[in-house]
Amino acid sequence: MLKNKIQYFMIRFIVVLMVIAFQIKIFAFPSFSQTVTNVEMGKTLPDLSGLAWLTEDQFLAVHDSKNLDSNQPRVSLITLPQSAKGLSWQPLTIDWESVGGIAMDLESITPIPDTNLFILAESSNYQKHQGRLFLMKFENSDLKPIAITNWPQNIINIEAIATTKLNNQFYFFYAERGAAQPSTNICWTTLSVEPFSIGDCHATRFSTADPTPHIRQISDLAIDASGTIYIASAFDPNQDNGPFKSSVWKIGKVELDQTNLPQINLVPENHAIAEIDGFKVESLALRPTPNQQPEIFIGTDDENYGGTIRLLPPVDSIH
User: Fold this and answer.
1) 44-311 maps to which CATH number?
2) What confidence tens digit (pLDDT) does each residue in 249-303 have?
3) What pTM, to 2 d.p., does this model score?
4) 13-16, long-range: CB < 8 A, 24+ apart
5) CB count in 10 Å sphere of residue 92
6) Are 120 and 105 in contact (CB under 8 A)?
């Protein structure tokens, strides 16, 4: 009799366990591993190694693709956000063969004042590849190569270029990034559009006076209509996941000297106008405003994180 009761309760216990297991199978939420495998990767904005204002809310950006794979974008058209959907960007198709082959390691872009022309710059001599400057025209929503010229042989790691116009003459400015160096040179040269060429370097030594290791003294350069010079500097520990840090500086002005040649007049002491933690700023773009104080946009190259563009708060004019 006792044996039969034990068997009866054992059978009931097993049935209850089976019912519970069945209910768990039906109503349980998906496991964490199932959720992860069903997530789709987002479409990341590529690095913004160079940035130039185009018109209204549109910018041209260059990307530092370093191989011959033409599927990797070199130049993109970026439109600022019009809604919560965020910014939009589209790679531009460039006829690279018309100017000697696809670009390698584009690091900067600058507009030429009062024109629809832009200069795009490779960093320098990458893997025995002679660094080039590309002159291009933007018209009918298309960026067309016009001409190329080579960098001088003795430069390395150019990440910053800018142009200005003084007394109806174009001038071209560039700077080596000065990675892990106490200072770097800012050069100005004459600029000819036709034929496309640059002159000899007239150098001014510059330092952010930032003692942080792995600092790139100048990661981009921009000059506004009044001649005010802005630069970005960046901390890059050579790790593709960071951490990164950047600063934006207003460092002086370009003015004509007594011989009517450009002169870079640096401020006595540098003060950063923006500190950007967690991001590696490699590009600056200036958008004109009615009050003559331009809006400053930064573009980042955050390696594995991709890139982004942001507007900085307004700053006072330099005196």
Assistant:
1) 2.115.10.20
2) 999 999 999 999 999 999 998 889 999 999 999 999 999 999 878 999 999 999 9
3) 0.84
4) none
5) 17
6) no
